[in-house]
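Prompt: For my understanding, could you write out one protein's sequence and backbone structure tokens?
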Amino acid sequence: MKIAIRKLGNSHAVIIPKPLLAEIGAKAGDRVDMTVQGGKIFIAPIKKRPRQGWAEDSKAVAAAGNGRLVWPEFGNEADEDLKW
């Protein structure tokens, strides 16, 4: 596939077709790693670690007061007796 390099402000840009992004598992807005090796530009998606950001998200949920059970009627019978 041949694509033209375009001027974008003080930089230059290449439009990457959606099928090519899908092939590397990336989409618009994702962060990628761009390197040059042997005169070629390589673009690779940055892999997130599993559960990355969960701690911050759970703190935000607790601070908003949304930490209650979604279906409280499905709790265990002895939940009230638990000591934390």
In short: Strands lie at 6-8, 11-13, 32-37, 40-45. The chain has one domain: 1-66. The chain has a mean pLDDT of 85. The CA atoms of residues 25 and 45 lie 7 Å apart.
